[in-house]
Design a protein that fits this description.
272 residues, mainly alpha, Vanadium-containing Chloroperoxidase, domain 1, 15 helices, globular
Length: 272
C-alpha cells in the first residue's frame, strides 16, 4: 500500500512534465513548434500498476552487478564510432523529430513533414512511458555508469542533473520498445525491422554510458507491457488508424533518409 501511494504521487508529478523528463539533454529548439501536449492513453491507476511490476535494480557488489559492469565497459571500444553517433541520434525523443528513427525500414523521411496523427500517437504514448518509468525509478535508486565512473564519457551532453538521476529502469529503453511495437502496428509489413529499431534505442543508452544492460532490459520489458495496455484503449485505436493512413501516404512520396546506409552499418557494430 505504501509503495502504491508513493508511485501514485510520482505519477501526479510526472504527468506535468512527461516528455522533458525522458530527455532533458535536448531542449526544444525555438525554431520548431513542438506538438501540442496530450494526455497519456492510460490512467494513473494503470500506470502505477505497470510501474509496480518493474523489478528492482541489481544489488551493488553482486555477481549480477559485476556482469552489468562488464557489459557496460565493452561499449567503450565503440566510442566515436558510427554506433556511437547513432546513439547520439537516438537520444532524441521529441516525437515530431523522433519519427526519423523509423525512416529506414519505411523507406521514407517522416520528419521532413511530420504526420500529425503519428506525432500525436507517439506523443501520448511517450507520456505513458515517461510517467511509468519515472515512477519505477523512484522505488530503488541506482547510479548511472557516468556517475559510477566520473571519467566515463557519455555520447551526449550530460549536466549534473542528468548525471545524478536514476539509471534503473531506462526511460529511453521504455520509450523505444513501446514505439517500435506501435510503429509495427502502423506499418505491419515492416514490423520486425521497426521493432528492432525501437529496441536499438535502448541499446544506444548502454553505448552512451548512461545505463547498464539490466536497466535497459527492465525498461524494454516495461515498454512492452505498456504497449499491450495502451493498444487496448479506444483513443489509441483511433489514433492508430489515422497514423496508418498518414504513413501509407508518406511512403508514396519518394522521400528518403540519406543516413540509412550508415544506420544499417552502425547497428551491425557490436563490441567484442
Amino acid at each position: 500500500m505504501i509503495r502504491a501511494r508513493l508511485l501514485a504521487g510520482m505519477v501526479c508529478v510526472a504527468v506535468a512534465a512527461a516528455s522533458c523528463a525522458v530527455n532533458d539533454s535536448f531542449p526544444a529548439p525555438t525554431h520548431i513548434a513542438a506538438p501540442v501536449q496530450a494526455e497519456p492513453y492510460l490512467d494513473a491507476e494503470a500506470l502505477v500498476s505497470l510501474a509496480s511490476g518493474v523489478p528492482p535494480p541489481v544489488v551493488a557488489g553482486s555477481p549480477e552487478a559485476a556482469a552489468d559492469q562488464r557489459g557496460s565497459l565493452r561499449w567503450i571500444a565503440l566510442e566515436d564510432s558510427d554506433r556511437w553517433r547513432l546513439a547520439q541520434t537516438h537520444a532524441e525523443v521529441r516525437p515530431h523529430l523522433a519519427v526519423q528513427h523509423f525512416d529506414c525500414p519505411l523507406n521514407t523521411r517522416l520528419a521532413e513533414d511530420a504526420p500529425p496523427a503519428l506525432v500525436r500517437l507517439l506523443d501520448r504514448s511517450l507520456r505513458d512511458a515517461s510517467v511509468a518509468s519515472n515512477a519505477a525509478k523512484a522505488v530503488g535508486f541506482r547510479p548511472r555508469p557516468v556517475a559510477d565512473d566520473p571519467a566515463r564519457r557519455a555520447c551526449i551532453r550530460v549536466d549534473d542533473t542528468l548525471r545524478s538521476s536514476a539509471s534503473h529502469p531506462s526511460g529511453h529503453a521504455t520509450v523505444g520498445a513501446l514505439w517500435g511495437r506501435i510503429m509495427a502496428e502502423v506499418a505491419p509489413d515492416e514490423a520486425g525491422a521497426l521493432i528492432r529499431i525501437g529496441d536499438e534505442i535502448g541499446v544506444s543508452r548502454v553505448a552512451c554510458g548512461l545505463h547498464y544492460p539490466s536497466d535497459v532490459a527492465a525498461g524494454q520489458a516495461l515498454g512492452i507491457a505498456l504497449f499491450q495496455a495502451v493498444r487496448e484503449t479506444p483513443d489509441y485505436q483511433a489514433d492508430l488508424a489515422a497514423a496508418r493512413a498518414e504513413v501509407a501516404q508518406a511512403r508514396t512520396l519518394g522521400r528518403v533518409n540519406p543516413g540509412c546506409a550508415a544506420e544499417r552499418a552502425a547497428i551491425g557494430q557490436i563490441p567484442s
